[in-house]
Design a protein that fits this description.
The chain is α/β, with parallel strands linked by helices. About 50% of the residues lie in helices and about 10% in strands. Bound molecules: adenosine-5'-diphosphate and magnesium ion (MG).
Length: about 400
């Protein structure tokens, strides 16, 4: 038995925090054309003019938030050189504040001093807007509001209000520039035409990173985060390759580098190796599946459970009708009314998108036609682990008894 002392031994890190999510790098690599366009769109602000509203879009992890923080920090710093200029910036993540009401009350509270904050409930929406206009006008100057992950907003009223505030006569002193950021490429098309034309006066698209670009991002971060020579040669290329597979997501690549570093440190290894990256990747995938399953509703979990029992019996890959009959049987045990076979077919593809199960298309040529087969994408044990609550609620199917 160890003595559980805490002792500093081999740590590969110089500054581990540089790999965490909220770290903003000093410069961004490989985003020159995006930054140039973005910089140009913000340029009027330095003259004290209201910039066009801007809409940024691109897949997750391509540097939209990082670019925004980077440019707005610069803008605020540069604005200090001009006495007649007052620029205020605020970044709101709509993932946490997903209604117009909440965004508006958040803005009121950001601009008020702590003693005067309003509560999150108890006003009508129009009252909150009135308070918001008052605060914005009292503050005055140029106000740049970033609504990040804007696709989480359940209604677009605040977008309409803010993007047209001056035209609508709600503001006289302050000039607002609105910056909306979305991972969801279809978000813009779903907006009402009025909101779309005012929010998207400028649209800037962030392209996806390839493996080489991700290597550059990781190389830059390695310098800050790790001590010299603690990564074996293949660590960065491997993390970059995995990131490129994950639709060019720099965050995923950085997370993997962090996981590999942590594993090496836990083992007191002198260097971080390819092996740490591979195991790190495995662990991250498991965590992702567990989170994915945790977010499913009861019926979707029953579907995953149905496939898990088939897998335990060696009956996968399975066709949707086989999965459906197992799902129906499990629904009876769970005392739930089974949904339709059609619902199931549609949801199997969603579950595949989440990386929970895999699909293969079988083509039997002219005689048999085409059909799809499904299997678990992840280890049965990992999936059953994530389904723990479902199993508790409805008992364990005989097929998986040996696994839990
Ligand atoms: N060009 C880049 N140079 C350096 N770091 C980057 C670059 N692009 C992304 N990153 C880093 O990758 C992570 C994800 O980027 P982020 O801006 O949050 O993506 P998005 O907002 O597009 O989802 C962040 O840690 C960010 O600092
Ligand atoms: Mg972001």
């Amino acid at each position: 038995m160890g003595s559980f002392e805490f002792v500093r031994e081999h740590s590969p890190y110089k500054n581990r925090e540089a790999l965490l999510d909220d770290y903003t790098p000093d410069t961004l690599v490989g985003r020159d054309s995006e930054l140039e366009e973005y910089h140009g769109a913000l340029q009027p602000a330095i003259y004290g003019e209201q910039p066009d509203n801007i809409f940024l879009y691109g897949k997750a992890g391509v540097g939209k938030t990082a670019a925004t923080r980077f440019l707005l920090d610069k803008l605020e710093n540069n604005a200090d050189d001009y006495d007649d200029l007052d620029i205020f910036t605020e970044l709101v993540n709509c993932d946490g504040l997903n209604s117009s009401y909440r965004v508006a009350s958040h803005l009121v509270n950001t601009l008020r001093d702590p003693a005067n904050r309003i509560s999150e409930t108890g006003y009508s929406r129009s009252q909150v807007y009135e308070l918001m206009w008052d605060e914005l006008d009292t503050h005055g100057g140029i106000i740049l509001l970033v609504l990040d992950e804007i696709d989480h907003l359940k209604d677009d009223s605040i977008l309409y209000q803010l993007s047209r505030a001056r035209e609508n006569g709600n503001l006289t002193e302050a000039r607002i520039g609105l910056i909306g950021i979305s991972n969801d490429l279809t978000f813009r098309d779903g907006l009402s035409p009025k909101v779309r034309s005012s929010l998207c006066e400028r649209s800037i698209s962030f392209s996806t990173y390839d493996a080489n670009e991700l290597r550059a991002v990781l190389d830059q971060r390695r310098e800050v985060a790790f001590k010299d020579d603690v990564l074996t040669e293949d660590v960065i290329p491997l993390c970059a390759a995995f990131g490129a597979q994950e639709s060019g997501d720099a965050r995923k690549a950085l997370d993997l580098l962090l996981k590999a570093g942590d594993l090496a440190r836990e083992e007191n290894a002198e260097r971080v190796s390819e092996e740490h990256v591979r195991r790190g990747r495995d662990l991250l995938e498991r965590e992702q599946v567990a989170r994915g399953i945790a977010d499913l509703n009861d019926h979707e979990r029953l579907v995953v459970y149905a496939l898990a029992t088939l897998e335990a019996e060696g009956e996968t890959p399975a066709r949707s009708r086989e999965i459906y009959s197992r799902y129906k049987a499990l629904s009876v045990t769970a005392q739930r009314e089974a949904l339709t076979a059609r619902w199931l077919r549609e949801h199997l593809d969603d579950l595949a998108m989440l990386g929970i199960l895999s699909v293969s298309e079988i083509n039997e040529g002219s005689a048999g036609g085409k059909y799809r087969e499904y299997a678990l994408q992840q280890d049965l044990a990992v999936v059953l682990d994530a389904l723990e609550e479902t199993l508790e609620a409805m008992g364990v199917h005989t097929s998986v008894k040996g696994y839990v």
